[in-house]
Amino acid sequence: MLGQEPTRKFLSKLSEERPYYLSLPFLWTVSIPGLLGLTGAINQATRKIARGGSAWEARPVPDWGTSHLLAARETTIPIEQTTFLEAGQNSRGGFMPGYGMQQRESFLSRNLSITFIETIDDIVHRFFTPWSVAVGVDGLTNFDLKTNIYVHQYDNLKRVRKAYKFLDAFPTNVEGLTLTQEPEAMFPEKTVTFCFTDYSPIEVTQY
């Protein structure tokens, strides 16, 4: 499994240290390998639109290290869909029309949506929004702006229940934020939507 030691430390804090405790029966974690290289590619792209400042500079939290590990409230695994077309016409010579597969739905319509538990570091505006802006500047021809994303679901005994790998992912939508004085605004959640070229489940042998 990817990044077992950082994962164990992260989950230990959530389950044992009072400031980090979350009373969740299940927890999704999101890890992004090669974070430093991705951050460099983001900032190189966003500098092109700088106006007397750093513009949308990606600034990961210092202890992220080389692999970003975040808690997610919800992860929406994309659907798998194939479209078909009729071949022939009804009642032509007494035969029923045939059917043929047209295509497997493209990655543009099979999105990965992750709802992050926001922290005081504002992880969305520190990283995911600059990443989205960078894709808008350089486009998809900058392959350094694409990366693999791993999502793991853990139970409250720190065991992996489900895991998926998303290939060549990049953000396409970053949810906005409404600033209010309502109590629920104290613990905001933000959804980031990603596209990818393909994905696959990771085998879990603990269950």
Give a description of the structure.
The chain is of the alpha+beta class and 207 residues long. Helices cover 20% and strands 34% of the residues. The chain contains three helices and nine strands; from the N terminus they run H-E-H-E-E-E-E-H-E-E-E-E. The strands form two sheets. It has a six-stranded antiparallel barrel. Strands 3-4 form a two-stranded antiparallel ribbon. Helix 2 packs across helix 3. The mean pLDDT is 78.
Number-wise, the strands total 9
What is the tally of helical segments?
A: 3
Query: Beta-strand percentage?
Result: 25-35%
Mean pLDDT: 78
Order of strands across the main sheet = 1-2-5-8-7-6
CATH class: Mainly Beta
Largest sheet: 6 strands, antiparallel, barrel
Distance between the termini: 15 Å
Question: If you compute it from the alpha carbons, what radius of gyration comes out, rounded to the nearest whole angstrom?
Answer: 21 Å
Helix content: 10-25%
Short description:
The chain is of the alpha+beta class and 207 residues long. It contains 3 helices and 9 strands, in the order αβαββββαββββ.
Task: Give the topology, please.
Layout: H1 4-16, E1 26-32, H2 35-46, E2 68-76, E3 82-87, E4 98-104, E5 112-117, H3 123-138, E6 147-155, E7 160-174, E8 189-195, E9 198-201
Antiparallel strand pairs: 1-2, 1-6, 2-5, 3-4, 5-8, 6-7, 7-8, 7-9
Helix pairs in contact: 2-3
For the structure shown, list the relevant keywords.
Pnp Oxidase, Chain A; alpha+beta; two-stranded antiparallel sheet; 207 residues; 3 helices
